[in-house]
Amino acid sequence: FVGNGRTFCQDKDECQIGANKICGLHTTCHNTYGSYYCTCLSGYSPSNSMNVFIPNDGTHCQDVNECMITGLCGE
């Protein structure tokens, strides 16, 4: 939060500086009231199998190998 600590308090948008800086490559940053969280862009999946993660928890977004999805590559 930002403000003067007494009469004015407003949520700080941590995502404003950019998803790559906050969450890492191939991510989207989602601001929430008092916090924020990260998700992976389409075509990428989180390394810990969680759909939502927070920065610095060791999660990164990795490229999805579409050919591992049954039937997608013409097996």
Question: What is this structure's SSE topology?
Answer:
Blueprint: E1 2-3, E2 9-10, H1 19-22, E3 27-32, E4 35-40, E5 44-46, E6 61-63
Describe it.
Residues 11-50 form the EGF-like domain. GO terms for molecular function: calcium ion binding. Keywords: Disulfide bond, EGF-like domain, Repeat, Signal. This is Sushi domain containing 1. InterPro entries: EGF (IPR000742), EGF-like_Ca-bd_dom (IPR001881), EGF-type_Asp/Asn_hydroxyl_site (IPR000152), EGF_Ca-bd_CS (IPR018097), NOTCH1_EGF-like (IPR049883), R-tyr_protein_phosphatases (IPR051622). This protein is mainly beta and 75 residues long. The chain has a single domain, classed as Laminin. Helix content is 5%, strand content 29%. It has one helix at residues 19-22, and strands at residues 2-3, 9-10, 27-32, 35-40, 44-46, 61-63. It has a two-stranded antiparallel ribbon. Strands 3-4 form a two-stranded antiparallel ribbon. The longest helix has 4 residues, at 19-22. The radius of gyration is 17 Å and the shape is elongated.
Summarize the structure.
With 75 residues, the chain is mainly β. 5% of the residues lie in helices and 29% in strands. It starts with a strand and ends in a 12-residue tail after the last strand.
